[in-house]
Design a protein that fits this description.
Blueprint: H1 11-15, E1 19-21, H2 27-31, E2 39-41, E3 55-56, H3 63-70, H4 73-83, E4 89-92, H5 97-113, E5 116-117, E6 119-123, H6 143-151, E7 159-162, H7 179-192, E8 196-200, H8 209-219, E9 226-229, H9 237-249, E10 256-259, E11 284-285, E12 292-296, H10 319-328
Parallel strand pairs: 3-5, 4-6, 6-7, 7-8, 8-9, 9-10, 10-12
Antiparallel strand pairs: 1-2, 11-12
């Protein structure tokens, strides 16, 4: 596998490459209002201009954070692993465009005020999830307006994961409309608003590297920075990165991000609320000899994949699985 990378860095930043591990927040510091946790990026991490030196943003308005505040004893210690770790904020068709915009204003505004990098996941593509547990999406005629409205709420320069599953499910069901066109449009609109867009391309157990690259090239990278892998899935970081490097080598060395939120024990072949899984590596920017830009927590651990394997509806808090993920973590 080719390791060649077309990664532009300024000489000054290249000389300063480093990753500074931030200290883990304690319950006391969180209570005092500390709202960011992660790893500081001191270098440029992609072909485009990277975010200024900052940490990923810890959102205190999550179900995990509320569960942590309400817990005690061992449960509180375990839930702290989730609640105090930066995770993505999801916006989708469960709210209308104006409400979604207000949510984006609030979240990205809080991240910007904290001097931190927010992570948004946009999840509203027509024909979403082919009618499965996360089925839905906005109507075809409304998608462009919905995206533009959401984009107008962006403050600062958040990372955006664009439409999980959409490219990997391309052509798998009816009702998708011009999915390639929608993704191109969304990438352009969100980028113009200041976001750093990574188009979701499934995971290493889904498409072949060649097929993933072919589909990404349909969207192109005139606006999107790169691609995202393993969103809401369980493939190991090592397997995902090996796969991603192959994909990247076929799309001009474009960078990628990996969702490590629940991949600490890898996959057992199930995708919907599998048991025995673990939290993965904590989010951090990466600047090394590969095309990996960052490890992120895109899926929010503890929130159900859907009504399967004993879980509640998709997105609902499931404390039992949250505690299991945290207890099985290697850290």
């Amino acid at each position: 596998m080719s390791r060649a990378r077309r990664r532009t860095r300024t000489a000054a930043l290249a000389a300063a490459l480093a990753l500074v591990t931030a200290a883990t927040l304690t319950a006391q510091s969180a209570a005092a209002g500390v709202t960011s946790l992660g790893v500081t990026s001191l270098g440029v991490t992609s072909l485009e201009t990277a975010p200024a030196a900052s940490e990923f943003y810890v959102d205190t308005h999550t179900q995990a954070y509320a569960a942590w505040e309400a817990a005690s004893g061992t449960d509180k210690d375990l839930l702290a692993k989730i609640a105090l770790t930066p995770q993505s904020y999801w916006v989708g068709s469960w709210a209308d465009a104006d409400r979604s915009r207000d949510e984006v204003v609030d979240y990205t505004g809080r991240a910007a005020d904290a001097g931190a990098t927010g992570v948004l996941t946009v999840y509203a593509i027509p024909g979403r999830d082919c009618g499965n547990h996360s089925g839905g999406g906005v109507p075809e005629s409304e998608y462009a307006r919905w995206v533009d409205t959401v984009a107008s709420g962006i403050e600062g320069n958040p990372v955006v994961i664009l439409e999980p599953d959409a490219l990997a499910q391309l052509g798998d069901c009816d009702g998708q409309g011009d999915r390639v066109g929608y993704l191109r449009y969304a990438a352009a609109s969100l980028t113009e608003a200041g976001a750093r867009v990574y188009v979701d391309a499934g995971h290493s157990g889904w498409l072949s590297p060649a097929e993933a690259a072919r589909r990404l090239q349909l969207i192109g990278f005139s606006d999107a920075v790169g691609f995202a892998l393993n969103t809401s899935n369980y493939q190991t970081t090592a397997a995902t990165q090996a796969y991603a490097e192959e994909v990247s080598s076929q799309v001009g060395g474009r960078p990628y991000v990996i969702d490590t939120s629940r991949n600490g024990n890898g996959s057992n072949g199930e995708w919907c609320n599998p048991r025995g899984r673990a939290l993965g590596e904590r989010p951090r920017f990466v600047d090394d000899a590969t095309a990996l830009d960052a490890l992120l927590w895109v899926k929010l651990p503890g929130e159900s994949d859907g009504a399967c394997n004993g879980g509640p509806a998709a997105g609902a808090w499931w404390q039992e699985i949250a505690l299991e993920l945290a207890a099985n973590a290697s850290w």
